[in-house]
Amino acid sequence: MLNTFSMKSILISSAAALTIAGQAYAYEPARSAECIAPANPGGGWDFTCRSVGKVLVDLEYIKGNVQTVNMPGAGGGVAFAHTISKRDKDDSLIVAASTATTTRLAQGQFPGMNADQVKWVGTLGADYGIIAVGKNSKYTSLTQVLEALKKDPNAVKFAGGSASGGWDHLKVLMTAQKAGVENLPKIRYLAYSGGSEALVQVVGGHVDAFTGDISEVKGFMESGDLRVLAVLSEQRLPTPFDGIPTAMEQGVDSIAPNWRGFYVPGNASKESYDWWVSTIDELYKTQEWKDVMTKNGLISFHKSGAEFAQFVENQTLDIRILSQDIGLIK
Amino acid sequence: MDTMSLLMQGFAVALTPESIMFAVIGAILGTLIGALPGLGPANGVAILIPLAFSLGLSPTSSLILLTSVYAGAMYGGRISSILLNIPGDEPAMMTCLDGYPMALKGKAAEALAISAIASFIGSFIATIGLVILAPILAKFALKFGPAEYFALFALAFATLGGITGKNQFKTLMAAAIGLMIATVGIDISTGVQRFTFNTLELFEGVDFIIAIVGLFAISELFFFLERHAGDGLKQVAINKLKLSPKDIIKVLPASFRGAVLGFVAGVLPGAGASLGSFISYTVEKRVSDKGEFGKGDPRGVAAPEAGNNGAASGALVPMLTLGVPGSGTTAVLLAMLISLNISPGPMLFQQNADLVWGVIAAMFIGNLVLLLLNIPMIGIFVKLLSIPPKYLMPIVTLIASVGIYAVSHSALDLYFMVGFGVAGYIFRKVDIPLVPIILGMLLGPEMEKSLRHTLVLSDGDWTALFNSGLSIGLWTVAILGLVLPIIVGPIVRAKMAKSKTATKGD
Lengths: 330, 506
Prior knowledge:
The structure holds two protein chains of two kinds. By secondary structure, chain A is of the alpha/beta class. Chain A has eleven helices and nine strands. Chain A has two domains: 2-126 and 258-325, D-Maltodextrin-Binding Protein, domain 2 (3-Layer(aba) Sandwich); 127-250, Periplasmic binding protein-like II (D-Maltodextrin-Binding Protein, domain 2). The longest helix of chain B has 48 residues, at 93-140. Chain B is mainly alpha-helical. Chain B starts with a helix and ends with a helix. Chain A binds chain B through residues 39-43, 68-75, 77-78, 81, 109-111, 154, 157, 163-166, 188, 190-194, 196-197, 199-201, 203-204, 206-207, 219, 328, and chain B through 53, 56, 59, 141-146, 186-191, 198, 200-201, 203-204, 339-343, 345-347, 350-351, 407-410, 445-446, 449, 453, 456-457, 459. Chain A: Residues 1-26 form the signal peptide.
């Protein structure tokens, strides 16, 4: 089945090389595709697979169906290993990824594996990082928090939904580093198993500050229980979040998008990779996808193809250096 | 008033065709599972969790399905108690006392009908209790910092054995086994790997759903193999139902008392449904005029049934609001919530209001379905009871295995499941209870995290553990929970045994 398809696609692709580039895609996708969500149902990766799969089918980019397969384990490591060892040439497989994937790759938490072993397709939006405090906190700006940390790195304690060394932890460290805080390993971070658990502790006044993503704080922001001090984005976010100042406005050059995107197997055919890249590009522009983003608190962030691969490489490198600086890895 | 409008929204969720369908399916499956001796509610829910996952059900649908199974199993447990004198599950034990004698007297149909009505009243009242109590407790839960949570987990472990627990030492041992299994994986507080041996599959620890299915369902299979119980069980013939409104009115007071007592017993961590039905029965015996308790008194059927169903709903209160389960089955439900990336606790009522209230509303509907199901259709369930286990157990095993594999697509999980099955068989042979193992696995990491967080926040000062009134209160209850059973336990157990032998001698 697959063989006939790839034979066909080779024939078509040589023909297509002569035709005008643009509309006609050399590669014809298989009737159905598979999307691996490297976690249990209900989380971010599961959401990425299911929503993208649905729009791909609804808009008939794929004639058959896109099946979401949950493959939890090792924070995406099991799915990564599965992809490079068993599905390395599969043209109709995509795997959901996010900043958590690059963080683990950077810190060597997928033993013996690295980012070059797969092909990075693109992103379909991002959830930006924020730093927030409870409504009764003495801090009213990010600057005050950072000043306090400069005097004593132990002064403000943070709660977040990722493990120690994970993305929520790194956001705090990145921001503190950019602001010139010394002795980063002394900053206290309390790891919770989910953003909401960490939020309750901050809102309940048990922990000083919250580090997480903007989509996690909407409820408590609206109820007035939480004061968001800064969003870690280049520009202010669209309404209803436009009242939150960016870290850059407060003089700290810290940007932390938690992107949602995909990779495909490392030896998938070039034609299929190009097809996925251009499809993701088109999908990103559709109204259907914009609706999905609005409904789920995703904010525009789109990179694809070579640009995205470069972005992943840079991000991995940045995270590795930071993790070494603060002694998370050797 | 606020609660009312939320509940109405919940009904909007629960009355969608999809939700009703899952409530009905759950009710039927639950009754069936409860009726079959050996497969208790915890088993039933455990087997169906992977199935719900692999079918890709939404969290709301999964939870509606599984709470219906839970409620259905509480209903079903009575059927084999009455007809076979074998409780379908532990809480249904007290129903044997008067249910079986009634059946012997040729009143099996009446006993089944009365117990169905009593079950309905029990669940109904307790669900109302859940509606009232849960949001109050959820608001209160914001006061819980890491120190309070640590005390609460300690309390959950201390009261595990419950008043009826046989051997505190074995309970603690079981909890320790669970805690040990829970240490496998990447420790989130430091990012360090523990006991993973560089195996990717172990990085996130041992999945508790697999442990539950293995320990409960697969070990049940081994027990079956051992017994060679190839044939169906002998049962009392069922007569034509002759129930007058007067008979129903006569058991109403007993049902109401049983429901309230059961609910209270259910809310208390560690007490659970068995205690609920036991208290309801003994209180009823004392409160009522003489009657013929133990010889087939309808009130003796109604009170414990209302009690165990009340306790079942009551046990959902601490599970949903604090994330601390009050019974084995709610521990299993908790495991499922966590696997669906829904963290129970106060945030559940804020962030997943649709889900919580949808499920609560579905409980009302499921309960009504169960009542309708259990009176006219009782004949079908009775027939199913005579299916020989030799056909049944392979089906159960098949469903469990397919479900487990479909969730993760990993053959390693199946090995783990069988491994846990063997372990579960051995544990049950030597009377090590299984529920504390599951609780240890579930709560262990949380407890460790709370302790560490407390110490980080206090910069290493241990007295922070006892710094608030709330935590001191929790510690006090925990100590009482550990010490009381040693003193009171033997007395209660002796009474339970006495009332049981009294019936047997009949």
